Amino acid sequence: MGESKLPPLAADAVLKQSVAVPDSFVKVSGVDYSADSAYNARATDLIDSMRNMGFQASSVATACDIINEMDSWRGEHRDSLEEHKRTGEFDSQGFQKATVFMGFTSNLISSGLRDTLRYLVQHKKVSAIVASAGGIEEDLIKVLAPTYMGDFALPGKGLRDQGLNRIGNLLVPNDNYCKFEEWIVPILDRVLEEQQKALEELGAEALNADSPAVWTPSRLIDRLGQEINDESSVLYWAHKNKIPIFCPALTDGSIGDMLFFHTFKASPQRLRLDIVADIRRINSMSMEASRAGMLILGGGLIKHHICNACLMRNGADWAVYINTGQEFDGSDAGARPDEAVSWGKIKAEARSIKVYADVTVVWPLIVAATFAAKRPEQAA
Amino acid sequence: MGESKLPPLAADAVLKQSVAVPDSFVKVSGVDYSADSAYNARATDLIDSMRNMGFQASSVATACDIINEMDSWRGEHRDSLEEHKRTGEFDSQGFQKATVFMGFTSNLISSGLRDTLRYLVQHKKVSAIVASAGGIEEDLIKVLAPTYMGDFALPGKGLRDQGLNRIGNLLVPNDNYCKFEEWIVPILDRVLEEQQKALEELGAEALNADSPAVWTPSRLIDRLGQEINDESSVLYWAHKNKIPIFCPALTDGSIGDMLFFHTFKASPQRLRLDIVADIRRINSMSMEASRAGMLILGGGLIKHHICNACLMRNGADWAVYINTGQEFDGSDAGARPDEAVSWGKIKAEARSIKVYADVTVVWPLIVAATFAAKRPEQAA
Amino acid sequence: MGESKLPPLAADAVLKQSVAVPDSFVKVSGVDYSADSAYNARATDLIDSMRNMGFQASSVATACDIINEMDSWRGEHRDSLEEHKRTGEFDSQGFQKATVFMGFTSNLISSGLRDTLRYLVQHKKVSAIVASAGGIEEDLIKVLAPTYMGDFALPGKGLRDQGLNRIGNLLVPNDNYCKFEEWIVPILDRVLEEQQKALEELGAEALNADSPAVWTPSRLIDRLGQEINDESSVLYWAHKNKIPIFCPALTDGSIGDMLFFHTFKASPQRLRLDIVADIRRINSMSMEASRAGMLILGGGLIKHHICNACLMRNGADWAVYINTGQEFDGSDAGARPDEAVSWGKIKAEARSIKVYADVTVVWPLIVAATFAAKRPEQAA
Amino acid sequence: MGESKLPPLAADAVLKQSVAVPDSFVKVSGVDYSADSAYNARATDLIDSMRNMGFQASSVATACDIINEMDSWRGEHRDSLEEHKRTGEFDSQGFQKATVFMGFTSNLISSGLRDTLRYLVQHKKVSAIVASAGGIEEDLIKVLAPTYMGDFALPGKGLRDQGLNRIGNLLVPNDNYCKFEEWIVPILDRVLEEQQKALEELGAEALNADSPAVWTPSRLIDRLGQEINDESSVLYWAHKNKIPIFCPALTDGSIGDMLFFHTFKASPQRLRLDIVADIRRINSMSMEASRAGMLILGGGLIKHHICNACLMRNGADWAVYINTGQEFDGSDAGARPDEAVSWGKIKAEARSIKVYADVTVVWPLIVAATFAAKRPEQAA
Lengths: 380, 380, 380, 380
Fold this sequence. Notes:
The structure is a homotetramer.
Chain A: H1 8-14, H2 43-50, H3 55-72, E1 89-90, E2 96-97, E3 99-104, H4 106-110, H5 114-122, E4 128-131, H6 133-144, E5 148-149, H7 156-162, E6 164-167, E7 170-173, H8 175-202, H9 217-228, H10 234-240, E8 245-246, H11 254-266, H12 276-288, E9 292-297, H13 301-311, E10 316-323, H14 337-343, E11 346-356, H15 359-369, H16 376-379
Parallel strand pairs in A: 3-4, 3-9, 4-8, 9-10, 10-11
Antiparallel strand pairs in A: 1-2, 5-7, 6-7
Helix pairs in contact in A: 2-15, 3-15, 5-10, 6-8, 8-11, 9-10, 12-13
Catalytic activity (chains A, B, C, D): [eIF5A protein]-L-lysine + spermidine = [eIF5A protein]-deoxyhypusine + propane-1,3-diamine
Keywords (chains A, B, C, D): Hypusine biosynthesis, NAD, Transferase
Organism (chains A, B, C, D): Clavispora lusitaniae
């Protein structure tokens, strides 16, 4: 250990020279605290300072850049298009705009993010939604009764004894579901009635394309949005703004419990929910879009469903994923956007980013720096 | 810094005395390398040495203990039960056994775990399955053409150019889906024909309970299992052993693509898939079970759907979760079993465990140490 | 499946009544988009809207509340204290304030967060720092040459060929380390000279308490901060503001490479770095503090070291952890604050929170809403 | 929605043809349950069935392949080498073998994995170890008193009241640390005595290279291994087999507490621990190795320290990482082997793998299928 000559092996490895740094390289930087804007910073200033900060700070800023590009993209004017190309979304002045698919998981509606998601639907920032079943029912239930703050560590047995259901660090009193049952049963009765009436009228054509005898998850959700008739609700605004909400597994939650109960009440008649018409509907939106973007908040079904729809157009043009899934287990939830490129679900030349974060931590900031950087009346 | 007297504050805090350790405390221990069984160890020996190892090793061993208890549980003899209580599962000698709900995500069927999942279905180790759409189609497609090993880091653009779809470190040639389309289209034609025939026969009762005019995901999956007719297939054995496979969002994958295409081919007629009947069916299985167990491999829909079904019986009696989800984001995927206790989805007194691991790492070992500790003929 | 009576088991389980919700329960809420402050929101408004949002949004807001409480806590006036109790930190008016230990991992200095960490040190928001070795050298190197934005997916072989070292999505040209070597070697020469001179002078007392012959990591770091003499540097301000930086494993990085090289250059003499004096120093700060707080940014050594120091006072009074570690693997990095309570490292009655997030995503926002809610001159 | 012609856009995207699959492609496969070896499978059979299973199952099998290759690699015979090249490790017959650096975090010694780590040291399967401080003291403490099984959810306050320290789902009574103090203090007294004696003898040369006045972490650890003198101990076998254990931050744990206390007891004399000599020592082992392999169990310091040492030889030849860290936060813990390639810490042509798993879940299986596939006497 007492040698006095440094072996060249180590020196060469440690002090290896690098190539000249290309001019295109961007230096890492952070918040400039000499500027007034660093103090109690505004969302856009925060995002600007995060852009070249590295790690997920940069990914958050990239997500904002993609969203702004997607939101402001405009194509041809409607009048300059051949008639069969007048599909997809147009802005109020008649120019093509992106069709934006937003997916979110149930827990985000349970959280206070519901207000932010509702804001986006109210102001037509998205074109279609894919949600899991809880994302539908919790939006409705919150009109009937609130959800409360809890703690991740509250023991389950004590909560069950008190009828308090835990969702992470939130609590939903079970009475909320009782209220939901009271509210929804009469609606299901009427929906069944409409189904049966149409069935009788249409006979052998009752299951044909566009038959009114066939209820689908998106059709039922639209009806529920109409019935709830409350401005705090995502479903209300989706109904009002004709933004379809897709939920292929609508039975997987409290609505499923109610539909299950209803099978006994209605017997031998039965309300049916067809999922084939909805896959036709969402895929058609994708094909008709002049450009398509994806905002994926969470993982699982809601992520895959939007990606799969975008395969129908040979790939989305913009994609923002935000979730905590990891790719190492081969899950779709954890798959990076580049995996979707291999499937044709995102175009190779599309701008895409995955932000590795709990959605509640970043989405309020991202929305404040993009869709809600200005008040809607000012932005218009 | 040169003081010479240790302040008692630090000494008291560091050298605080502990209570006498109760006799019930179990010492941490590991592999005993003095025993021959430690070398190239068998599954059951590995599990025994992991039981008091701590961290997830202990969780894996607990999962094995729960599975063995659930698998060997026996209740009353059929003949000693009142007629209306003769529901749920019985063993070959007529004793009540647990109804086991197994859920798995699509990627596990894409992986080599398919053989293990098929083994469990073939040997009736489970009573019902909940899968995501890919878990259905990939099982069928693997009969038609293989999936290959790839790498997590293969760039998406090059893969898309070659028509190779990536799933984590696996690759599925896109031709596999073309073969799948050729195989399934004639089946969908026949299924539609059966629907229409029944519709015409039943008229206004066509949508009633148990109407043959109504196809559901589980009914279609059963038909596909019958048609594929191949012993390597999970669906084949599920059909043969009358083990229902539930997949409420069956349209969310390649089958959905095919159903979508079929809406054009069949127009104006249309095949319909009702999800209400399936929620009735799975919930009924839960209510009828004398005891119920959950094996949850992965997260998302498949986890929630089984938990929700078990609410109908006021909670499962055994629960094993294996996935990589974390609770901090309030996701259902990451929720611990104790969250399900608060909802009444797992009984407070049930044995449950969550193993935090990629399923492929632990499930082969767990199965080898439990369900497949002995050859079926020996075990019987 | 066609039964018409809902079994009471299911109805009772699903519609179980809950206890009356106590008045103390807090409703989940989110951003109020009717308020002007929701648009391009300021940091404090964002945090206010996240407080009862649930999941990690709430944890971020709690972290801000804890930081504000810790930062503004004031105890007795110096003059009203017995002499031996005049330890720890005092504000400019002579009142006791909290001793704040901040730990961060190397990568945060590589990222643009360095500016934020420097801001906190410059304005004496923290009392002591624990860093990993890279957190020392990268701060110095950034004065000599910049770090650049890269991409997580850049292949390692090509980068090595070009002499570009990757840190997540950042790139550090290897020339930066060559520049660092040129800068640090003369300093190490002088430090060794001082060691040897003191050794000769002190003889048998050369290793005694407070001997100038003994260099420690914190003493060398302080010297490096003095030498770098650049206002962009964390070490510069730490030196200037007499805020010690502890780094028990200072050899574990490029400085270690340089110290290693120096053993050959200096042979048979050798610079020594003693870690015992530093544990005495950090533990003493903990014992002397009137109140102690922990800001832990990342995991591993820097987390454990601060927690361990706080054991010497029977627990910290405030604790904020921010990292992505999970507890399931029994790692210290992933351990929740409540695990530290069991060890006496955090007081049972302390306010503490763990935020599960990449630090770069949340720390700029948290600092903007707390320490930097006002300009320092305004805040004073 | 009622159109009858499928747009070619969707058909082309979904049914895109793939290139012919090259012969080199390997099919995904799993357990072959027609073979007897599938039942209560042995470790090597399990690993064989996991090799082409995909996801982390494949990574585990790759880890085994790398370990077997590394363990069996043999180079030149000692006698055929020039004298200055007779460095590194040789097998009992005089052939060069790989120098294996194994790193593990403290919690693994707390867990039952200690027996497995001890087995590897006892049978000279590794050449050097890097551990965190807890990995040193917990090994010693376990000779004095056991660690117990606990639960991740035990509340910290109650545990502290009882003096039970929690590590994940393990419990360590605080009395164990009191026993440790009694055991170690006399040893520290003697070590200080030796330091002072050498200091007096050597005078101005007391800090020179190889001076016996200078204690280092690795030297103290070796002495502790000698003193504990118990075959269950990792340190005992490391001492006996002359396998150095490096722990640059040895003060960061209970040993640090004891060294801290000792500064008061010994004042004004003080034991010193130099970390410069240890970086010289580990780097020298790396440079002298004919081939070098890394076994990294966990993250943080122990990972970086081994990687950094391997930079001195321009990269390791084999690398197995096992931990739960993720790369998205730019942490070294989560960095993939390919990031180390960019730094020259792993050779571009080396075989490397990262297994994403809690070490306790996979390491017993991996060891049983590799190092312990045969009893040592049989293997020799």
